[in-house]
Amino acid sequence: MSSEAVTPNMFTHGPLGAVFAKTALPIILVMSLNGLTALVDAAFLGVFVGPEALGAVTLMFPLHMLIVALATLVASGMSSLLARHLGGGLVSEARAVFAGAHGLALAVSVGLILLFAIFGRQVTLLAAEGSESLAAMGRIYFGILVLFSPVLFVVSVNSDALRNEGRTGLMASMSLAISLSNVGFNYVLIAILDLGVAGSAFGTAMAWGLALLIVAAFRTRGRTELRLSALYRYSPVTAWQRILALGAPQSLGFLGMALVSAAIIVALQVADTGSYAITVSAYGIVTRIMTFVYLPLLGLSQALQTIVGNNFGAELWRRSDDGLRLGIALAFIYCLAAEAVLIGFAGPTSFLFVADARVAGEVARIMPVMVAMFFAAGPLAMIATYFQAIGDAGRAAILALSKPYLFAIPLIFLLSFAFGEQGIWMAGPAAELLLLGLAAVVLAARAQREELRWGLFKAAA
């Protein structure tokens, strides 16, 4: 164990409720601001450039998700290791992982740049279904984002590091500055300088650059154990295998969400109900609503990962157990309340997005079915996050990835074949139910093998 002195760890002391609030709320703010920025950017493109530009950017969404997934792969994997090292007072080990994460981030982003240079034209043409004009705009937009992706990767690594250092306030302040500057940059570049989709991409890249400057200033002058000097004092290939293994579940989760959405669109085309455009519009509204509903849950899960990781690393078993209990309880209450609101107000809520009564009617029909098992989603997400936090990559992957890949995607096509278009919306709740059963099996096996209460709680009764 390192003998270096460390600053007091806020996660291993004090009331857990207050620690959860202090950790989760800034993260939720960060994610909400990111979502707002994306909406404003889309509005600028639609108003000042035109629908074709907005369509080109929309076609690049799956590829954009690939960048997010890869950045998450590195940052999330590092976060799991970093929380336990900092919680256990292992400063040298934490610095080594921090340096290794930067090396991996740069390696992955450079590889992404090379792949786009080779296959970018073919991929964008495929996404645009052969339309040269759409493909050209998409290639410009995504090419700029890929070129500056090393900046995003490094910022993502440092954002997760700030969270594990207990600097969530700084992280939230930085995100606020970045989001506001992104909107400002985009307005100038799109509305005033008339740079179109290139302006949107450059505005985003400039915001990433501002974030990098803020991080560099903190790592150089701020009170932190993870200074820039760690990047050349420790090997840039430290813990790559562990980072990749621990980051894979959350990273593949992002890809799974994109694949599930694509599967629903394909299934709707196959179902051919005669109201495809209306149903897709309604599904888009439901997706936006569910994204915003999911943000607090994701913030809570990241707070749980940090708190449990620190306490588990410090071998404070009872406190890590209590943190898990609180996380599961909060997630259940939140998801149950959210489900009640979404079911009860599905129709009225839809009119906030559209005035078309047919689309609103589809939202009111689809939403209650899709969220029928949402009350279980929160606790299951907390359990998967717990396994990631304690370094159990295998169980974390099983619980995080089974729903989209093993259950949801096959069920979308199987249930639509059996029940028609209505079966498409039944696939989500059915997948959640199957995941609940799988989690019970995993926890029962772990309880028997390791003699843990409920397969989770390590402290003695």
Automatic annotation (TrEMBL):
Keyword list, A-Z: Antibiotic resistance, Cell membrane, Membrane, Transmembrane, Transmembrane helix, Transport
Gene Ontology MF: a single term: antiporter activity
Membrane-crossing residue ranges in chain numbering: 27-49, 61-84, 96-120, 140-158, 170-193, 199-218, 252-270, 276-297, 326-346, 366-387, 399-418, 424-445
Pfam families: MatE
GO cellular component terms listed in the entry, alphabetical order: plasma membrane
Membrane topology field: Multi-pass membrane protein
Subcellular location: Cell inner membrane
The family this protein is said to belong to: Belongs to the multi antimicrobial extrusion (MATE) (TC 2.A.66.1) family. MepA subfamily.
Protein name as annotated: Multidrug export protein MepA
Species name: Kaustia mangrovi
